[in-house]
Design a protein that fits this description.
Elements: E1 7-8, H1 13-19, E2 24-29, E3 32-39, E4 44-45, H2 57-74, H3 76-90, H4 98-117, H5 132-141, H6 148-165, H7 173-183, H8 196-202, E5 209-210, E6 213-216, E7 219-221, E8 224-225, E9 234-236, H9 238-247
Helix pairs in contact: 1-2, 1-4, 2-3, 2-4, 2-6, 3-4, 5-6, 5-8, 6-7, 6-9, 8-9
């Protein structure tokens, strides 16, 4: 009466390397992303990369956003290898290549390692939220027309810029993130269809909002995160978040 045993059989790249690992279950609502759910670990996760041969290119790119995130938050070498492999991964046959298998194994290892040390997100697991605070806002603001990975790409572009603005990230970190997203043909700016002010306002409904301030997971450099002294969550003023979002916004008059 309190949940049944189940096996995850992910059929998208995003599910294989992120959503199926970690035990979070939930549903999206009009009020926002991941606001209703529970922790319930699967009995097993069965990943078969061969099914990626049937995946639309847009869905494949969306999954690559989470792979890029894993490199930023935990492993600079994995980030560099992923960026180097992107053209081959997106080429015909790339979805079932040895490079894709290596990417899947690397991302699963990173996420599994983080979750094993902090299953319920009291500390370290918060680093997995990089790109997700503003990314979830972008996803909701689009009426979920954006795929999750596309929204997270927007979030990473803005949040890495925010980290530099706050003096938390090494200079050039945001540009490296942006270039990786562009190479994966993912959004690397706030599109003109999304209003930066609405994005920041929507973060107030995020699960990471605390006493009128919103916590972000922000990078220090590629492969390491800031915020170790604050349980990996950094409270940010709306004005700073809005400034970063505006910097990364596409000019609608162009």
């Amino acid at each position: 009466m309190r949940g049944i045993p189940f096996v995850q059989v992910p059929t998208t790249l995003l599910a294989m390397i992120d959503a199926s690992i970690g035990g979070k279950t939930g549903v999206d609502t009009p009020a926002g992303k991941n606001l209703v759910g529970a922790f319930h670990q699967p009995a097993a996760v069965l990943v078969d990369p061969e099914v990626l041969a049937t995946l639309p290119a847009r869905e494949l790119r969306a999954g690559l956003a989470e792979a890029i995130k894993h490199g930023v938050i935990a492993d600079a070498g994995y980030f560099d290898r992923t960026v180097e492999a992107l053209p081959a991964l997106l080429a015909p046959g790339g979805s079932t290549s040895a490079a894709m298998r290596s990417l899947i194994e690397g991302s699963v290892a990173i996420k599994e390692s983080v979750v094993a040390r902090d299953e319920r997100e009291h500390g370290l697991r918060k680093i997995l939220n990089f790109g997700h605070t503003l990314g979830h806002a972008a996803e909701a603001s689009s009426g979920y027309a954006l795929l999750h990975g596309e929204a997270i790409a927007i979030g990473m572009a803005v949040e890495s810029r925010l980290a530099e603005r706050l003096g938390l990230a090494e200079a050039g970190t945001a540009e490296r993130v942006r270039m990786a997203l562009a190479l994966a043909t993912l959004p690397c700016q706030v599109p003109s269809s999304l209003d930066p002010e609405r994005l920041v306002a929507l973060t107030k409904t995020d699960k990471k909002a605390r006493r009128e301030r919103v916590e972000y997971a922000l990078p220090h450099a590629i492969g390491t995160m800031a915020g170790g002294s604050s349980d990996w969550g950094i409270a940010v003023d709306d004005a700073d978040a809005l400034a970063a979002a505006r910097i990364m916004a596409v000019d609608p008059n162009r």
